């Protein structure tokens, strides 16, 4: 989708700008190592496309802009891009900590932060990412509240995973909602906030994204159990090796059945999206595509 790729390119440029000016240089180098190593950029792309789908004036020309060219920012573009970058920095900060907990030496095909720099600098890098992120959210109290709520949920999810481990499907689904769904929800709500959408639209787009995030996590667990490390770009089988709860381990369902469970969450996400009756356009098309992609992806 050229339309989406053009927006993703704008996000990549803004991410590089955000971490390229960090001081001291050593910290900036660490943040660049973490954030510029790649990734699907699902969350920041979700923020920008939700803003467009919700009526935000993000790019000159909107859906009519030349899809082959990097779009030019319009009135709401600064907020949308800043929030997109911010949520990606928050996500990467959480991955740094995840890799330390899991003792994972590889992330996205490169050395993880702690493996490259050590535990202390890795934790400092995580803190640095959060600091840069909150600087981007600070001009709008609604954005600050949205991200703060998601971090509370994320922290509770991490704690549950470590000390109050789920033992059945219901408990696992609550963990997935907090651990993964919360940041997806925040990404979408931030896009709607940038578009100055009404409360119902913000909430419903958040529900859509949270369910996409849960579907993403279920599929992630299945891939960890069934795919190989080269395809994933990170070690496979880590859930089993670390004795970590996953949907595969807390149920007796087959991978096919679990993929069906992810599909159910995807269908609920699409139903929430349809409930808003957003105007047709490539931004809305991407939101529908994303709900399908997270279930079908192979990495």
UniProtKB/TrEMBL annotation:
GO terms of biological process kind: isoprenoid biosynthetic process
Residues in the signal sequence: none
Family listed: Belongs to the FPP/GGPP synthase family.
Species annotation: Halobacterium jilantaiense
Positions in coiled-coil regions: none
SUPFAM superfamilies documented for this protein: Terpenoid synthases (SSF48576)
Cofactor(s), by name: Mg(2+)
Keywords, ordered alphabetically: Magnesium, Metal-binding, Transferase
Top-level taxon of origin: Archaea
Gene Ontology terms for molecular function: metal ion binding; prenyltransferase activity
Pfam families, A to Z: polyprenyl_synt (PF00348)
Name listed for the protein in its UniProt record: Geranylgeranyl diphosphate synthase, type I
């Amino acid at each position: 989708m050229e339309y989406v790729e053009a927006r993703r390119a704008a996000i990549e440029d803004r991410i590089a700008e955000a971490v390229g000016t960090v001081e001291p240089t050593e910290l900036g180098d660490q943040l660049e190592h973490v954030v510029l190593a790649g990734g699907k950029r699902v969350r920041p792309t979700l923020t920008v496309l939700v803003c467009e789908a919700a009526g935000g004036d993000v790019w000159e020309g909107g859906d009519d802009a030349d899809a082959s060219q990097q779009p030019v920012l319009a009135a709401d573009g600064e907020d949308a891009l800043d929030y997109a970058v911010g949520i990606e920095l928050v996500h990467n900060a959480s991955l740094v900590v995840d890799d330390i907990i899991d003792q994972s030496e590889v992330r996205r095909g490169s050395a993880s932060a702690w493996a490259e720099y050590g535990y202390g600098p890795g934790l400092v890098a995580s803190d640095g990412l959060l600091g840069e992120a909150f600087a981007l959210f600070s001009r709008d109290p609604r954005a600050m509240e949205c991200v703060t709520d998601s971090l509370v949920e994320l922290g509770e999810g991490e704690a549950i995973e470590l000390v109050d481990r789920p033992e059945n499907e219901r408990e696992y689904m609550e963990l997935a909602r907090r651990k993964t769904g919360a940041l997806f929800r925040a990404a979408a709500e931030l896009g709607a906030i940038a578009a100055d959408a009404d409360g119902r639209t913000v909430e419903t787009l958040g529900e859509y994204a949270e369910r996409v995030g849960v579907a993403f996590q279920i599929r992630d667990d299945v891939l960890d159990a069934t795919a190989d490390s080269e395809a994933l770009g990170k070690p496979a089988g880590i859930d089993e090796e670390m004795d970590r709860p996953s949907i595969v381990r807390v149920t007796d369902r087959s991978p096919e059945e679990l993929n069906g469970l992810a599909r159910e969450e995807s269908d609920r996400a699409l139903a929430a999206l349809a409930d808003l009756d957003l105007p047709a356009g490539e931004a809305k098309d991407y939101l529908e595509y994303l709900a399908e992609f997270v279930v079908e992806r192979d990495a």
